[in-house]
Each structure stands twice: as C-alpha cells, then as structure tokens.
Amino acid sequence: MNRVIRSLSVAASTLGLAIVLAGCGGSGGSTGTQPIPTGSLPNPAPVEAATTTIVQVERLARPGINEGLLITNDFLNAFNAIAPTSDTAALSTAVGTEIVATLTALGNNQAAIGAIVNAFVPDVMRIDTTITSGYAGGVTFTGAAFTTNIASIPTGGRLILDDVIDITLTVLTHAAITTDNVSYTGGGNVGQGHSALSTSFPYLPTPH
Predict the structure, then answer these.
(1) Which of 81, 69, 143, 79 has the alpha carbon at shortest distance from 113?
(2) Is the pLDDT of residue 35 over 80?
(3) Longest pairwise C-alpha distance within the chain
(4) What is the reported pTM?
C-alpha cells in the first residue's frame, strides 16, 4: 500500500510539473524557466570508490647493482620488494651471502667487497655537492687506489654523458670489465644506433 501511495505521489508531482510547463508556453506566455521540484527526481546511485593495491616490484637507484649481484631470481624479487631502509638488514640474510659470493667470483678481495657494499647499499642516489660533479666524482679506478676510490661512488650525482653502466662494471669486476660497448657516441657497438644529444634542454637524443 505504501508503495502505491508513493507511486501516485510521484505521478502527481510529475503531472503538476507538466501542467506548469505547459502553462508557460504559447505565444503570449512567459518564456522564463520554472524550478523543477526536487521530489520528482530520483536520487543518483552512490559511486563506490575503487580500491587499488600497489605492489613494489622494482627499484633502481643505481642500474646494474641488484640485477648484477643477485643471481637467484627469488632473492632479486625479494630485495626489490623491500625499502632501501631495509637493505643493510638484508645483507645478513641469504641475499647478502649471494652478493658477497658474486663479488668474490668477480675477483674482489674482502676489502674491495666491503668498499663496494658501503658505496652501493642502501640502494639510493647520493649527492655530495662538495666534490667534482659526476657519477664517479671525477675519480678513475686504476692502480693501488682502486679500493679506496670506490668510496666516491656515486656521490657526485650524474652528468648527462656519464656512462653509469661502464663505471659500475669497472667497480664490480675490479676493472676486469670496463665497458659494455654502448655509449651516446656509438662506442664499439656499431649497431646500437644512438643519436647525438640535443644542444638544448632537455639535451636528450631524438627517440628512435
């Protein structure tokens, strides 16, 4: 019964609205608009907020570190899923054991391994404005000072032409490998097809 009464009420309101609008028409009638009774309009359906879950699967402050030192894919995924604030703690787990094993296999002694870990863990970008700008801070990695110079990585930020991977390979392999033969100028890989940098901001080469 209540539903019938409400239906009749809505129908009556709608009919009243039609009569008012009809009375406003015609050549001699007013051309003004009349307010629409709010009771004659249905309430809009509520909009439910979408639920989004964000899962961290990668972080890459310095390219070539996580991917290069963690051989076991499960270890790599686990390391990439944590925050940099947890990196140091992760070194005391199987992840850290594999990192040390990889660095040892690449020809590093204990001193070099300690220097590399201190330079690259936690995996965040570091910038020291008191030293020479650049990913290696202007330091070269040759001779007896190799291990000592690792401490400068990578506090000088990055210059546009800094070959981050070449520097990283040099450090991680104790200079056994110094380049991947890829650079803005072509390097030793004639098939890479890098374009020249632009002379104006943002200085990046044209995509190809």
Answers:
(1) 69
(2) no
(3) 103
(4) 0.65
